[in-house]
Records
---
Amino acid sequence: MWESERDISSFYYRHLLLDFVEKKLDSTTHLKMRALIDESEEYKDLLGSVLLSKEFFESISDIQYTAQSSEVLTKKSFYQNLKTLLNHSIFKMILFMALFGLCLITFLNFMEIIQWPL
Amino acid sequence: MEYIEKNWALFFLLVYCHEESALEELLNLKKHIARDGEVDSELIQELYMTCRVFLSKNSNQRSWTLKKDFQVPSDFDSGAWLEYRLKTSARIFLMTSLYYIAQVPESLLANSLDMTQGQLRYRLNQSLQSFGQILLKEIAS
């Protein structure tokens, strides 16, 4: 029974390797998987791959991350926002209108056409 | 899901392989967390799409851009990771990274990616097998 079951379901068992490694299988299936792995070189290789990948993901926590980085970035993002604002076309237009208005008032004051703000 | 900054910092670093972009994305996430308080499926979907766009725009990226804010151990196999990142479909790559690096719980991740938990585990299993093959090849060479 087990022989034919193994042949028919080798595809199925291949996809249970992760559950086998993470011990999420029921005891009967776990034992069947254990037997399959012991018998088959192919399964041993696949199990090795899964274990190696898991080990890699566990080693990721060894990468050191300093929380200062995001503080620096917060400051930096303020300047980036300011830069974006200065580059914005509407902001440029408002700035241009304000400068133009200031120049016009200065000129009219100079020509004594108006006396503003006094 | 509880927000753990280091997990997300590492997730962005390993998905983007570019420190500055990773930190900018982390800052965006922190702003969102400060506003909404938690990591939910909507946020995961949003992050998934952002990362997919980044990956498609940088599909030829073959190196890491690291500065000083992350200290990567000398024995860390960055070559294998880059190869895995290039060879695997973006969906599987992000799914694996979200689960193993950001440590998004299985049910939340499956729900966010609109799949069953069984489908998720099937994909993760395939992903680990193919990544393991790359790691084995790197070790052998």
Note: Residues 45 and 113 of chain B are 7 Å apart (CA to CA).
---
Amino acid sequence: MNELMRVEDLKMYFGGLKAIDGLDLVINEGETLGIIGPNGAGKTTLFNAICGVYKPTGGKVIFKGQEVQGQPAYVMARKGIARTFQISKPLADLTILDNVVAAAGVHEYTGMRSYFRKSHTPEVIAKAEAVLEETGLTEVRDKKASDVSLGYLRRLEIARVLVTDPELIMLDEPCAGLSNFAINEVTELILKLKERKKSIVLIEHNLPITMKVCDRIMVLSYGKKIAEGPPEVVKHDKQVIEAYLGEEDEA
Amino acid sequence: MFLQLVINSLAIGSLYALTAMGATLIYGILGILDIANAGAYLIGAYIGYYIYISTGQLVLAFLGAMLSVGLVGVVLHRTVYGPILAKPRMLSIIPLVAAVGLFTMSSDLIRLLCGAGTKAYNFRFPVDVVRVGSVTIQTTWLLIFALTAVLLVVLWVVLNKTKMGLAWRATAEDPDIARACGVNTNSAMALSYVLGYGFAAAAGIMTGILYNSITPALGEVPSYKMLAIIVLGGLGNPLGTVVAGLLIGFAEVMLSTYTVLPIPKDAVAFVVLIIVLLIKPSGLFGQRNKV
Amino acid sequence: MSAYVFSISATAAVFVLLALSLNIITGYAGQAMMGQAAFFGIGAYTAAILTETYHVNFWLALILGMLFTGLCGAVLGLISLRLQADFLAITTIGINFVMVALFNNMSITGASLGLNVTKPSFFGRQMGNQEFFFLTLIVIVIVCLLIVKMRRSWFGMALASINNDAAAARSFGIDVSRYQILAFIIGTAIAGLAGGIYAHRMGYIASSDFAFTVSIQILSMVVIGGIGTIRGPILGALLLSVLPEALRFVSDFVSDYRSLVYGGLLVLMVRFMPGGLFGSSSPIVRGSLWVFRKITGKGGAAA
């Protein structure tokens, strides 16, 4: 398998707090990597540091052989690293379709030049509609994002990612706060992406789903990797059970 | 000479601090930049004036004005700010627009009711000035010092030593959690308005006494200077406001004495503000980032 | 009588332009701008100084005034990147006061005496209210067309995204800072152009023409009309500049106590109708749409 992204010795400090402390990570093409760990382990911080929301304190992020660490979020998005947010960030005043159209313009936002390029061309709308269909959002196509339920908003996050034709999809707890029914729908969606050989990084608290979906799992605790391997191996790792799975089983 | 200037700047600075304190208390709780505080300042000066000329009692003028303007504040919170803040997904500038609306109304309202002319308190102490060595202090300034100190101590006691103050601090920290813990956040907000508008009214009367003239335009300069001071003070931080008020007073007096300013001294506050914000975008004493 | 109408219309037109300009910054880009009059003033003084002191051609002065104001707007845009909404609002109020103070103290702006501006000629004829009204009207039409085009472009999409959620906008490739600065440049440049027109029509400008209260007037027009729409600021500006004049025949109260009326309307609007009189959720707009459908017989209740 070809390597898509390599993270080397990544550090993200906030003052004295070492949220990510020397992390190494490899994501191969077509692979689904799960990241698990207790609350506060630094999972979302890792996403933010990779995607350019934060500037990493140290270390390297190599994407397709190119060093990209420290570049702003919008540049990462254009390079093909697309992420969803743990707390949905819909464009509330816009329709679901327009939300997806906005994301479809990922390579169009070039400053003043973008003034001279129409946004809602038939091609763009067709593309957005295809993604809506794929993510099961067609029925709410013309509703305002502020008027739809959380289940739709979670899928909207994924739809916005897909419409950018990303090389790497980073999903931050796509099932958080959803009902069992809605969780199944989102899981189906991720499995579909997996079938299409998309490269995915998934943060998810729901262990059975993570185990089912991921090829490889990395366990994070206090900003450090404490285990990594296929789901079956990680499941039986002693350190992991102590740090994470133990509590989770009781819950 | 220098010592004299320091005393002058302290007097002016403490007046600024008092003027801005109301807006600070309100921002601390509601996150509204209540420019209408300058309206409370204006209306307070007028109510105080009418009480003083009809009774001759300055203490009564202060109490009456602070109380009635404080009540106006509570009414405004109930009828205007509260409902606006309760609306979901509100543009961030909407409450500020409401405050600006109320403030613009206030000066015209006073002009309509009390006339456009200048009014004078004509309040005089038996002794005009006190001399300490080479330093001369106007007695009215001493009054301002004393009153500012008393009001700030009262504020400190209310906020730190009473149950109501605890509720206020809890609400300022996080209204939702405070509510969940059984704090009556509504009364904490009402307290903000009583104190906030009351303080503004007191500051208005003091300005009226100090310059011996009040006009419907009295609130104009404080309206923006106050904003500059509360931002410098870190938005919603009472102690920061006092320091920022003194700092602006000091900067104004010193700059207008020792330099030839290309701008009027009332604009100094904003020049200082803009410079400070460029260096430290959360204000001099801003610790937390309210979004 | 018709001279009077053109005088009012010319002023109203300038305010329509100002409301449209503020709407780009506050309505589309969602930035808290409270000092639009400062940029109106920068444009007015720049154009006036260019024609008076440096004898630059009127049309060129208008353009240069617009460009220079846009440049100042770019600086504010850069500042805005560092500030949260509340801080930005206060900073812009501050800029308004500082600019008025500068206009009132600098010798190049005529200090407290103000600046006399010679009215320009157009094909040998001195331009009066009528000519200025039509000039402003043409500019308004152009600006509206440009805004309509903007809303259909990726530029408009970028502003809408930023206005809704800047973090989300970044996540799909929008350079938020760049668009924020562009919105400031465009919005202030249009205000500057309005200033140049205003200065040459009035023949005299003073610092008080660009006071904070004028910023509030412009903001009132946008908010009362309907923020983030095109018709809102236009109708709001017309309403607020024509109404006091129209009511003058009944009573002087409204024109004498303009602040009271503006302030009161502002409070009532944000309290009860934050979308504005002519915004998309306004009962007035819905009502007239309903009447329109009834008359044309299209759709009916189902539509």
Note: The beta strands of chain B are 129-132, 135-138.
---
Amino acid sequence: MRDTTPCNSLYIPFDCEITAITDLTPREKLFRLIRSDGTPLGHLPGQFVQLSLLGWGEAPLSIASSPTREGYFELGVRQAGQLTTALHRMKVGETVGVRGPFGRPFDLEALNGEDVLLISGGCGLAPLRSLIQYCEDRPQQFGRVTILHGAKSPADTLFKEELARWEASAEFACHLTVDSATGNDCFTGNVGLITSLIPPLTITPHRTTAVIIGPPVMYRAVIAELKGKGLGSDRIVVSLERQMRCGVGKCGHCTIEHLYCCQDGPVFRLDEIEQLRGAL
Amino acid sequence: MKQLTPHELEQFLSHLAVRYELRLPILLADGTRTIGSPDDGSVVLHGGAVPGKPTAAFFPQQDTIFTASQGTFSQTLPPVKPLCILGFTPADLHCLRFIDRFFGDGMRDDLYFRLRQGAVVAGITGYCGVRGALLPPAGGNCDFELFWSGENWLVRAYGATGAELVAELPNQATPKEEELFTQALATAPDSGAILLQTASQLLRTNRVPDSFWEEIGERCIACTGCNVTCPTCTCFGVLDWRSATKVERSRTWDSCQLDGFMREASGHNPLGSAALRSRRRIHHKLAADPLKWGEISCFRCGRCDATCPTGIGIMAVAQELVARFG
């Protein structure tokens, strides 16, 4: 039996303290974290971390806040399994482990001066929020910013207050919809699929880039609508969800043909992946 | 090139064991062989490839990532003496070269290199395959190779470490035996390489219909033997083991032939059918890896074909695929 000793490793998480927890929906919470050593996470919009709870393992989670909001980072987490259930039980002041940030972020240079169309469905708003906040904080870097978001129902809608703020903002055009609503929801907004928000838009294809993040079922339908508006595959960006176990291109769980979602993605330009089997 | 009698080889191995933790093919009680410590069984270098994944020497089936106790992380240290592994066939050495690239690329996998760094690797070649069949000389990819001529072990070194280890051996190979090595080196590559290249081309040009994978998928019983024995399969899962005083996080080999391999928290499963999983197993080696790494990542070691109870190892599938769509 070999000895053990403390040492550095790709796989050892660093401590982060939970400084705030916000209920987003009955199933989703927003965790605000700071690194216990006081250093910034150093992320860019679109990246993810491996969140580590000792005894429960690790899970890949998208970073939901922009690096322009300095001093902390946020993770929007749906309670879906053992690890996320344990996380949902945690309190402010407790410590979690984090590795990262990992993955290819949004290409902010390519978006410079572009009209951006930010489209999310369901939980996809959490990772997209990192880019929306960036646009909010650096408006001079972008042309017209349009946000489209679709949720299953009013109750399932994440970041309601921020959505309301973005709807009211002069900086953004923001359109929301829900798949269905009942009378009990007292909901007066749009009811319909996310695709229903696209036809009324006026898009200038040669200076517009669309970003899509949502459940797998959403991508093809939204892409078809965008292509109908004249957007080419080189002007459509997607962020893909995969079950990364390591985040560093070794475990093999996130491969899309020859690409590793954790390293080559999770952000891809559509023309990089649309021909790859199983990507969308 | 040096030469050792079987008795001199024993002495050479004892000499190596002073500096290195020796691992080589040993006989198990069930009559099979594995790469293990000479303390755990009698050494049997003849008989060709061992049935198990030889690269497990550096990528073990289960490996502790860290142990966390009272707020402190600790990791397993490298072995006191570096490993010296004998018993890789030429195909196994190609596999090792490939996964050295894989684990070293981008973010270097410190768990793999904890064992691999400083290790000595020796190939076993010559007329010591199954029933004396020729294992062609490796010609590289190792620190030295032992080539069985039928009477003696010829020793050829590659690189500085191998040269240093072999330099002390007193006897030069005879010209006759050196000639035997040279002739074996000139042996034509087996037809399997061409078969895999053809299959790779068919896959990369999308000439294999989904119905083929449905047929292969129906024959897969998800025993995972293909992945477990494959020297270039490197997928792993991560699991925490809890006890009263500590948490041990470990990684364990995983198999793309299992339904849960890619299933996401949302329930979405990019490999949600046996057909897709079977395609992934073959496509990854023959089409995806050539795109990413510039080479097919199956080196025809034969283990998955020998292991698969339903006859859908990679060579069998490639043969069927080429016969039907080539």
Note: Chain B touches chain A through 54 residues (CB under 8 Å).
---
Amino acid sequence: MKSMLMKVYILGFAALSIFFMIIIWKVTFAHVIEESHDRQEVLEALQADKEKDEAPVKTTFQKIILDSEQTVKHYLGYKVLEEKRIEGHFHHIGIDIGPDKRSYCVNCHGDMPHDQIKDLRAFLNMHAFFVSCQTCHVKLEGKEKTGEFRWYDRRTGVIIPSPVAFEEPGTYKSKIIPFERVNGQLIRIDSDERISFASEFRQSKDTLSEAQSSKAKKIIHKIVSKQPHLCEDCHNSKDPVLPLDKLGYPKERIDSILSTEVVGLIKNYTQFYMPRMLHPGDKSGQEREQNRKKNLKKNKKPLTITKIN
Amino acid sequence: MKRAGQVFRKNLNFIIVLICVLLFAFASSVFAADIGNCLLCHKYPGISRVDENGDLKLFYVNEDIFNNSVHAKVNCEGCHTDIKKVPHDPAKKVDCLIECHIMEPSTEKKFSHKDADFFLANSVHSKKEKDGNPKKFAEDMPTCKDCHDNPLYRPLSFFKKVRYGVSEASLGRCRVCHKKDEFIYRFYNHVTTRLHKSRNPLNIAEVCARCHNDPEIVARHNLSTKAVYSYGETFHGKAARFLDERIPDCLDCHVRQGESVHQMMSHEDPLSSTYKDNRSNICTNMDCHPSASPKFATYSVHAEFNKTQSPVQYYFTFFFIVLTGGTLLPLMGIIFLDCIRRLFPHAVIKRRK
Amino acid sequence: MEKTPAIKIKNGTRYFYRFTVNQRIQHVILAWSVVTLVLTGMPLKFPDTSWAPYLYSLFGGIHAAPVIHKVFGAILLALFVYHIVYLVYVIYKYQVLPLKQKERLTTGKVLKLIANQPLVPNLKDAKDIRDLMKYLLYMTRKRPDGAKYTWKEKFDYWAPFWGMVIIGLSGLVMWNKELATMIFPGELINFSLIAHSDEALLAALFLFIWHWYNAHFSEAVFPMGTAFITGYLPEALMVEEHYEDYVEIMTKAGLADEILPPHGMHAVASEEGGQA
């Protein structure tokens, strides 16, 4: 037994000596190679400059999407403020809410999905930080309609008690999700079944035929209603879609959400900015559809970034 | 009874302290300069979009952090001048050079950052050559926001030498004469933030690194070094990496004493602090190496392990690399062979004669 | 009885005297200061690694660690100077003086004496390395017969010796940079930094891998060699590493008939006997 252990130890040390060799290589000769490689790159870059007045900017996925996520630490002495760095951004962010790991919508549509209605998109994205997609984009009717909404944790996906009373407005690490009634039972609308359907579709997307693919998309989006809930549906004191008091909003927050300030703001929008936008079915709806198609065509152009530095 | 009184007094002290602490916790939100009620919407972190170029636009303003910044006293409208009503059209880019509503007390003129721009335009970072023609790759030259985000207060505490932050003891002295806590708090921050580096040396180096460590920019502008990288190889750079507050950063050497950092000059300019005849003045500064001789400044701060940039140092380092690798790799090989030999102590390859 | 006999028997095992108290104390100071210097120096060489800030703050961070580094650097340099004085004194008193009394001293004789010091590398070391490679590559069963100090120990001695000259001098330059640049150009600091940090890396890796393996972690000594504390080396290790010296000491002590066969030769002897 003892000699067996000793053999294992010796083998382990032999492996360790290989590991040491790699380390020693890295801290010695690897530097020489790296240095000549770097010099080569600079020479090539200069060459490219000479050939073409403006060096071609590399637009790889790595460079644009992955490398652009930077964090910065501000050493203030009495505290260290760590936050995401957005190029050219002046104000500090200071909080990181973290990604929504539950929602199966954001996998395709992203965290900031609203980009069509120019004047509203930032507002809609702001709401999407604490209101799940289904809350507005699914209008439950008849038996399915429950009027039941709860909060779920963005990271774990589990239903949690209302965070509203303990955190600053809009900075909750959770989202509101509607519940539907299936066979007399209350279940959350983002059921595990729907999530696994969507994720299986995403995984096997490349192997599906066009017909299969569009069938899957139809099924995934079946519950989405044609017209989403509009601002006024919640921001009105008579019959708001969301039961704010049940969701844990204290009275003064409810008053603020339904206040003349907010409701007036929305009215202003509907009156001065998009008179017809919030009234579906009329001409503007068709206009919007045309705009959408135009935008789609525009977006088909590959993403080009003119300057990176 | 006496004991009960003591306990009560002790508790009272505690309660007073607690109230003070709470007041301070809330103090920041008391100062809000949000006259236009912009935060009604902009306090939500999610207020954002991805624009047509694929860039993230975030319209969130963290009120607490903003109120601890040097701009705390400026209203939103002070900079975002085009916004007159709520809801508003897409806002224009802020012009940092506008005159804002704040009075500069010594001249009683409206405050503006125009001087910084003037200095910058005459510095090595100018977009134009000395003859007025635009520089090649002028778009690489920095503008305000390439170096600055909203500068945060970094107050000093002289009463407690060990840490930074607002000193309660000195606030007590302020309160003797000044009645408004908001004023005291802001003034304390305003003054003490400027009594030391407004940013930690590492933060300064990181700002310069955004351009000066970018290999493409370094190559495009024929710069001799990835400056922050080579600074990081010196003791100064390493100490900054370990958050030393008193170590010289880029600005300490590249800006003439007492001048604005925006007035940085090329090392070829005789007026520059880094011009070869002026360099020893940097090092022999009273706060740094006062006893050093002028020769001291011939230390090459930005020498890199690079054959073209500093060949002598390259070969000197190369010697040690060969020595280290050449000694250790064979020895590691012997350890490896020794381990394997000990696994089969009696084995031997028999040679036929 | 002599205080430090050449052979000591404890629990039925023979132990061979190798290091004097003076040498052992020198070694402990050396080891202690080198470990401290490496721990306070390496975070500065690799400041971007994940472990560096933690290790550095263990020694008080950027304000205290450099001071500790200089204190232990000074201790090490003092030890180095002491060692040189000790070396000269010992050689002079025990070797040069007796020679002087016997016959007339010439420069050639003194040089010859120095070249014959047990720690000076010689031809036998080259031969031993060749034989070791043969052994490690399974070409022979016989390990080279080590003398009092093997080539490994000479390496262990001269590598830090050279290292201490390089690191010590460059360290002194960087410590007294203002003084040094009164005479030399500022670029001397650049070269000092390179030499100091690169040579230190070599020394640290050499000591912590090679020396520790041979002295502590190798199968023969595992889990820890004790000769650096007790001064005595057990018989098995004497046979394995210093066979030549072992035979000499045993013969001197009149135990010539109890000399063990060379390392790994029991099996060989029996096998060859069987074949014959």
Note: Chain B touches chain C through 47 residues (CB under 8 Å).
